Amino acid sequence: MKPVLVWFRQDLRLSDNPALDFAVKSGRPVICLFVLDDQSPGAWKWGGASRWWLHHSLAALDKALDGRLVLRRGDAAKIVRALVKEGGADTLVWNRCYEPFAVARDKSLKSDLSADGVTVQTFNAALLHEPWELKTGGGTPFRVFTPFWKAMRAMDVAKPLAAPRKLDLQKAKSEALKDWKLLPAKPDWAKGFDWTPGEKAAHAALYDFLDDVKEYGRARDLPDRDGTSRLSPHLHWGEISPRQIWQAVTTHGHSGGSETFLKELGWREFCTQLLFHNPTLPELPLDKRFEKFQWRKSAKDFEAWTKGKTGIPIVDAGMRQLWQTGWMHNRVRMIVASLLIKHLGIHWREGQAWFWDTLVDADLANNSANWQWVAGCGADAAPFFRIFNPVLQGEKFDPRGDYVRRFVPELKAVPDKFIHKPWTAPQPPAGYPAPIVDLAQGRERALAAFQALKR
Ligand SMILES: Cc1cc2nc3c(=O)[nH]c(=O)nc-3n(C[C@H](O)[C@H](O)[C@H](O)COP(=O)(O)OP(=O)(O)OC[C@H]3O[C@@H](n4cnc5c(N)ncnc54)[C@H](O)[C@@H]3O)c2cc1C
Prior knowledge:
- The chain is mostly helical and 455 residues long.
- The protein is built from 18 helices and five strands.
- Flavin-adenine dinucleotide binds next to helix 8, helix 10, helix 13 and helix 15.
């Protein structure tokens, strides 16, 4: 019997994996492949933190597949075509990706292989609904979240598929994961990452979170608490599906918290459909006026921001959390992004690139759409003139300064009253920088640049 080739991509799981399910149900042997594709034209190469995650996630998937995951590196289309031939497969299956370069690559691969007589079947594993399923009354893609969410919430969500009970896996020559050197060596900047990648750990994280979901509405904004699910990297790599999460949350019991949480999954879908329908989202502002925005260039300020040395405690805590753990709380992501774009006047794409390299959940759609949201140039974005005051944000969402003290030890002894503005303390803390920007002046400069753009 000719085998079916399953090409794993951002669906590193066995359960609710429609491509794998299809292959297994065909009753034929299955070859499981993953390609490290840094070579497709236009490919966004995974950043350092993503590669760390990918290493561990592939190791977990390989274990679940009894050591028979085939690893290859290079131009994915070429590799897949070669393995179809080599393995004698007449059917190729995959779950769809929505990054513009992946869409282009997959489309042309599908047509080439179909022309060669190979059956190619593709499936939806990453989203609750395909980006082309939800349309406005006028038949166009949504650009405003609220009506998008209303339409999405009214749709039925398909039930997740169970993991195959038995796998008939065919072997093929594989590269060794360690030879891919996805892990950092010297220095090992990932030593503070307290994550367990893989499908099992993803489900454990979901079940842990279900106990707290009813509190989510309030707790999700407080970075000093564990109030969010921390499912983002598992979701990005497809170790768990949004259908599985949706089903678990909706059957667990309804609450204000669960509804707010489902809405966040809605934001994820919204971002992906924005990227799908606007392939230049990672590079160009959706609001074309912003193409002429006068950004500042300052390598010094940018470096202080990346290193968590801006002298603004909530920003520094966030940037250090990112560096130390590969993740940052959503509220703080908004604050640090706002400071970079508005008070410092630095292009959102510089911040986006830093996040791309350092986040374990770096996701082309979510990252680009959210940076554009903060910059005020995206779809349904926060208006540019609404500028977060990081001191007030800190005082509101980290009122005792626990989050700041956890990541900025230089501020441990600063009294609560001054924790978000230590430069006003009678004795500013030793070893901690003064703010690199005067917040009032930075705000005025940003507003002036915006006025100039409007003129
Ligand atoms: C500047 C900026 C950049 C961001 N970059 C990314 C990124 O690269 N990858 C990424 O997954 N998220 C990104 N986000 C969105 C958000 O911060 C994270 O998804 C969230 O913090 C992940 O933590 P969690 O899993 O505990 O989220 P929870 O609060 O538990 O939310 C559950 C899930 O909903 C989705 N979600 C939540 N908030 C958003 C949002 N604003 N937009 C899209 N999806 C959302 C995520 O998949 C998340 O795992 C970014 C936000 C900002 C402001």
